[in-house]
Amino acid sequence: MKNIILSLALVFTLFYASAQEPGRKIIIDVTSTNFKVYQSVMLTLRIMTESHPNTQFDVIAYGEAVPMMMKNQSVVADQITQFINNKNVRFTACEVSMTLFNIKREQLLDGIQTVANAVDEIVKKQNEGWGYIKSGN
């Protein structure tokens, strides 16, 4: 919990310092199985999208975190659903992880995007100038 709070404090500090800069792009990397991490990610996303409406966000779940984006399993499904129509917010699940854990595309919440390999996607986006936030443990 201490790591989550410290991560949030760092994120708020960085965004406060850069509030006047439009057009930022941020990856939020989620690999945890901890539902408190999911709640923290959603709280951070809500606050950041309100204070920085021009920033693009991609919440990328892989490994054992993919259930964060699944129907009937996600503890943050309602919060994710509220963001699905926001053109600056994307939720992405890793197809490698989905295959590994036998998760079918139709089990994901409506509006969730998929990529073949989350790590490749993160590296690609960082090379394109996206910032990177690693969510809690």
Termini Cα gap: 9 Å
Radius of gyration: 14 Å
Average pLDDT level: 90
Low-confidence stretches: none
Q: What is the H-and-E element order?
A: HEHEHEHEHE
3D shape: globular
Report the sheet-strand fraction: 15-25%
Strand order of the largest sheet: 4-3-2-1-5
Count of individual beta strands: 5
Q: Structural class of the helix and strand makeup?
A: alpha/beta
Give the helix proportion (percent range). Answer: 40-55%
Largest sheet: 5 strands, parallel
Number of helices: 5
Q: How would you describe what is shown here?
A:
With 137 residues, the protein is of the alpha/beta class. 41% of the residues lie in helices and 18% in strands. It has helices spanning 2-17, 35-51, 77-83, 95-100, 118-127; strands spanning 25-30, 56-61, 89-94, 113-115, 131-134. Helix 3 links the parallel strand 2 and strand 3. The model has no long low-confidence stretch (mean pLDDT 90).
In short:
The chain has 137 residues and is α/β, with parallel strands linked by helices. Helices cover 41% and strands 18% of the residues. The protein contains 5 helices and 5 strands.
Key structural traits:
single chain, 137 residues, 5-stranded parallel sheet
List the helices and strands and how they pair.
Blueprint: H1 2-17, E1 25-30, H2 35-51, E2 56-61, H3 77-83, E3 89-94, H4 95-100, E4 113-115, H5 118-127, E5 131-134
Parallel strand pairs: 1-2, 1-5, 2-3, 3-4
Helix pairs in contact: 1-2
